[in-house]
Amino acid sequence: MADAAVLQQLAPTGKLRIAVAVAPSPSAQFAVKDGDTYKGVAVMLGEALAKKLGVPAEIVPHAASGEIQNSAADNKWDVAFLPVDAERKKFVDFGSAYHLLQSTFLVAPGSPMQSVKDANAAGVGIGGVANTATFRAATAATPKATHIEFKGVDIATAAMNDGKIQAIALSRESLGGLLAKIPGSRVLDDAFLNSTTSVCVPKGRPAALTYANAFVEEAKASGLVRQAFDAMGLKSSVVAPAGMMG
Question: What is the pLDDT of residues 28-37, one digit of tens each?
């Protein structure tokens, strides 16, 4: 059981409210819906953190990471596991990294694009999830393209299948899960973003962040993070080195 100061900041309602983003396929960040429950790396890490705290876990689903960051000040969740970028640091405090993140493009069937620079052209429609680190980086890397925001990955997938966009910007793991949903699509070999996925808490909770950091470092050292990746079929996902911060 954690001390009173940690519990007050990390589980103020008496339970640990874990914010997760839900998508059609899993990644180091994204969870998937499984009947009435959710499965994912963030779910497993959050539930393990709740067990360490000695409190019940509650999964708080969101359509995307942007929704999580935008609700950080609303006292709706206590911990999340999100990709890091400068914009998001305005909303949450990041701690220990547990995943080395690389993001790139999935290109439509028949597309001639072979690299990220090929997507930086007039007439190329690039879809992504609104208010995400990945889509911000994709937009910065391809200023000549047309950028179309979607509320969730499933809507972007439908848009590509309908021929409305030529590329989707997501993490490499997430894109791998979309290949079967968009027959003939390809994931580019290069990338426009190299970052981390890290634990975070709403701003102004230093005791909560310190405790969450220690948990993530233990989870990396014990093999829990690797086990969570493997359980979700993310064999290629890379665990961040010990001590790396978001």
Answer: 999 999 999 9
Strand bridging mode 57-62 / 16-21: parallel
Contacts of 197 (CB under 8 A, 6+ apart): 28, 29, 81, 82, 83, 84, 97, 98, 99, 101, 240, 246
Q: Please give the residue range of the domain that contains residue 189.
A: 102-193
Task: Assign residue 113 a region (left: φ > 0; alpha: ψ between -120 and 50; beta: otherwise).
Answer: beta
Per-residue pLDDT reduced to its tens digit, 130-173: 888 899 999 999 999 999 999 989 999 999 999 999 999 999 98
Number of domains in the chain: 2
Whether 245 is covered by a domain: the verdict is no
In a domain, residue 62? The reply is yes
Residues 118 and 162 in one domain: yes
Are 108 and 182 within 8 A, CB to CB? yes
Alpha-carbon span 169 to 134, nearest angstrom: 7
In the numeric block, which tokens belong to residue 82? Answer: 């999100």
